[in-house]
Prior knowledge:
Largest sheet: 7 strands, mixed
Structural class: alpha/beta
Helix content: 25-40%
Strand order of the largest sheet: 5-6-4-3-7-8-9
Order of helices and strands: HEEHHEHEEEEHEHE
Radius of gyration: 16 Å
CATH architecture of the domain at 55-179: 3-Layer(aba) Sandwich
CATH class of the domain at 55-179: Alpha Beta
Amino acid sequence: MPSDRRLSLDELKALVRTVPDFPATGIMFRDITTLIAHGPGLGATIDHLADLVPAGTSAIAGIEARGFIFGTALATKLGLGFIPVRKAGKLPVETIGQDYALEYGEARIEIDPSLLQDGERVLLVDDLIATGGTAIAAAQLLRRAGAVCETALFVIDLPELGGAKILGDAGVESRSLIAFSGH
């Protein structure tokens, strides 16, 4: 029988598995799949994220892939539409795209701009902010489509990697539920 008590942020943090030396030696990978697989933990995560949504938000944009999980659940909870920010070549209609740098190369994300209206206030959602590259690219892409994107929500922040600050310097406030030290 489910409990009516919402799990605390510390309890949510404890549900995130840490995998040492993945994908490379010295990296402490924060595996959020253990949180997603925990029903009460996933529900509490969405409830806590909902508490951080700015007034006036009219749509949620989620970054592929885990941003789809949290973004869709949050959009459903709030009765808002969901805008998928996809990897290149995944949408069956005309898109606009944004290239961004990876550690070893480049990647591209795309959206269907017909899903947005000029001036629409869109909240960006993803599971984790590390260096901020993907989030900045997504915010730029949403803005190019005419949206106002001033806030991004993340379940996890890795503050030592500086992504939240870089995102803030780009005019997007970063809000997260939990933080982990280290990489």
